## 1
Amino acid sequence: MFDWGDIDKFFISFFIILPIVTLIHELGHYFFARLFGGTLDMQIGTGKKLFKLGPLQVNRVYFYDAWCQFSDLKWSNKVTRSFVYAGGALFNMASILILNWFILQQEIEPTLYTYQFAYFSFYYIFFSLYPIYYSSGHPSDGRAIYDTWKKGSPESDPIN
């Protein structure tokens, strides 16, 4: 049950852990875009820009939403584009496995925050790979993969 004594956990979960999971997801897209010779712009959050660091822009409402857009893949085909789209989910899964490895090795203690990190990561994996179009008209990562194989969609589509 949630009570006022849990408000600090709420703030840590939504304003620190969730943005870290989001950043890991976006870095997965970035890694594969760069691996295949492309460029990628990333934004975390909505609203006015707080700061920009290389291809990453962080906006004021940094804990809500994220997107990236890649282009100019040197090696551009269905497989490479699919890896770029799936990169976020792959990095989220890898982060869960790494976290669990550290817990199993007793390097870190399992806590509410490690549980929430894994929970948010699974959330990102599931909903990013669920093949839908968002209300903005942009495809989820799963939908972008599907469209790439079914229709050969353009590689410059924004991905969430």
## 2
Amino acid sequence: MQPLNALKAAFQNYVNFKDRTSRGGFWWYILAYLIVAMILNIGDSALFGAASAEVSASESGSIRDSSGPLVSLWALVNFIPSIAICARRLHDTNRSGWLQLVGLIPLLGWIFLIYICVQKGSSGENRFGADPLA
């Protein structure tokens, strides 16, 4: 599966939280998402100035992300498809889609989710449907 095909498939299954997604389909989607986000970040810099696309430290010492409008719109459009494809990927490993809530735990949650999403999916049919590679 190619990155743009994975992105297209994710949008075709926009609110499908029931089936399964293969490792390839999931990671190609992530790659396509990041490539488009980087391109839009360059577009934000060109259209709205360099300050809109950089992370800067404020006077209070906290770091704020000043993403431009194009990247922000892209993230908003992909919010639900990202949750859906992650749920389908977890289903492929025979785990509940709700497990992605562990990602709310700073750093450790993301590491755990990446570990699960890298694992091979269960062979054959499981409680979430047919094997996507079959």
